[in-house]
Specification:
It is a single chain. By secondary structure, the chain is α/β, with parallel strands linked by helices. The chain is 41% helix and 12% strand. The protein has 13 helices and twelve strands. It has a six-stranded parallel sheet with strand order 2-1-3-4-5-11, with helices on both faces. The protein has a four-stranded parallel sheet with strand order 7-6-8-9, sandwiched between helices. A two-stranded antiparallel sheet has the order 10-12. The radius of gyration is 22 Å and the shape is elongated. The chain starts with a helix and ends with a helix. It binds beta-D-glucopyranose. The site of beta-D-glucopyranose (BGC) has 12 residues, from loops.
Length: 383
């Protein structure tokens, strides 16, 4: 058994070298240049990732690619440059080249129905990676985190930072407010953005209802709070506008719900430019986040950003590879949730992973001890 695996691995390695495996995390942001499907019986998996502007997707792409190669498969990995037609074209080309399975982290979860129809016609199974693909029956499986709970965790960390909840996130905190808070959401075409928002708002609502939290701008709809493509600059601009429209009367902003570290850094830049101080005591609001990006982990370590959510992309990649292996062996992958993810056409069987809240005091236990980041990376803020 063992030696067979080694032979398969060796063959896969030789093949990937021969096929010029230059499609790693550093390449393929535009035109597809992936390896053609192997014709010696080795199976090829097409992996479509949304963008390289955020380090999590680069890490996801690499981890999925490494896992698939170690399992003996060829990999055609492409990044879509946050551009919907680019991603559509990349997937079209993967199908034309004859991949045996697709793993897709979509840019716009509603824009891939044609590609998935074509995949279904050729009997290619499709695994949605982290982001659900909506409006098609041709998505077979979904690997992700418990996205509603990510939103709960984001709001919980905000409440802990404000002192409205105790450090354990459960008991009442020492403070009673009222606190001025502003709300940011992700990209509306990403299904996850809605889950994060719902989890967060359900958690904040009781505090808003009893006046402990005040959204002074009145912008409490996801449409108003949204950040197209999750872009840092877009969030920075909205924060600047909010400071001008709502806080130029001298009132203080105490907290910001942010759904992603890039957005958090845009918010923090706007606040710093407007004279909010570097440490919480000096007046920088509590700002949340997501993804444990290294630049934000450093900011948390330095007391600038308050929290983030750690979603271990290594575990997600492992789940995607496990599901892919099942399909490629002609089996069904194991789901642990068959109720939550309705893509408007069907409920997609899913495998959900858990996430953790990162504060300054658990960076070491969650991120360093698990090998996700080193002490030196945390200190420098560079990957
Ligand atoms: C992911 C988040 C990420 C966001 C922006 C979402 O779909 O689940 O982890 O922060 O996209 O890239």
């Amino acid at each position: 058994m063992k030696s067979l695996k080694i032979v398969a691995l060796g063959a896969a390695l030789a093949l990937s070298l021969a096929a010029c495996a230059g499609d790693g995390a550093g390449g393929g942001s535009g035109e597809s240049s992936g390896a053609p499907a192997a014709d010696d019986g080795t199976k090829t998996v097409g992996v479509a990732m949304p963008t390289q502007t955020s380090e999590r997707w680069i890490a996801d792409g690499k981890a999925v690619e490494d896992g698939l190669k170690a399992a003996g498969y060829e990999v055609n990995l492409q990044f879509g440059n946050d551009d919907i037609p680019t991603q559509q074209q990349q997937i079209d080309q993967m199908i034309t080249k004859g991949v045996d399975l697709l793993i897709v982290a979509s840019i716009d979860g509603t824009a891939l129905a044609n590609q998935l129809d074509a995949a279904a016609e050729k009997g290619i199974p499709v695994i949605a990676y982290d982001r659900l693909i909506n409006g098609t029956k041709n998505v077979d499986f979904y690997v992700t985190f418990d996205n509603y709970n990510v939103g709960v965790q984001q709001a919980t960390s905000l409440l802990v930072g404000l002192g409205l909840l105790a450090e354990d996130g459960k008991a009442a905190g020492a403070e009673s407010g009222p606190f001025n808070v502003e709300l940011f959401a992700g990209s509306l075409d990403d299904n996850n953005a809605h889950f994060f928002w719902k989890g967060a708002i359900d958690t904040l609502k009781p505090f808003m209802d009893d006046g402990k939290i005040v959204v002074k701008s009145g912008q409490t709809d996801i449409e108003k709070a949204a950040t197209l493509r999750w872009l840092q600059e877009t969030a920075q601009k909205r924060m600047e506008d909010l400071l001008t429209s709502t806080y130029s009367d001298g009132s203080k902003l105490d907290g910001v719900l942010s759904p992603y570290d890039g957005i958090s850094r845009g918010i923090i830049t706007a606040l710093q430019n407007a004279g909010y101080g570097p440490g919480q005591d000096a007046g920088l609001p509590i700002v949340t986040g997501q993804d444990a990006e290294i630049a934000s982990v450093k900011l948390i370590n330095d007391g600038v950003q308050f929290s983030t959510i750690f979603k271990d992309t290594r575990k997600l990649a492992t789940q995607a590879v496990t599901a892919a292996e099942s399909y490629l062996k002609g089996e069904e992958p194991e789901a642990n949730d068959t109720e939550t993810y309705d893509n408007k056409v069907k409920i997609v069987p899913s495998y959900l992973l858990e996430s953790d809240i990162v504060y300054a005091n658990n960076i070491k236990s969650l991120l360093v001890d698990s090998g996700y980041w080193t002490d030196a990376q945390v200190a420098s803020g560079q990957a």
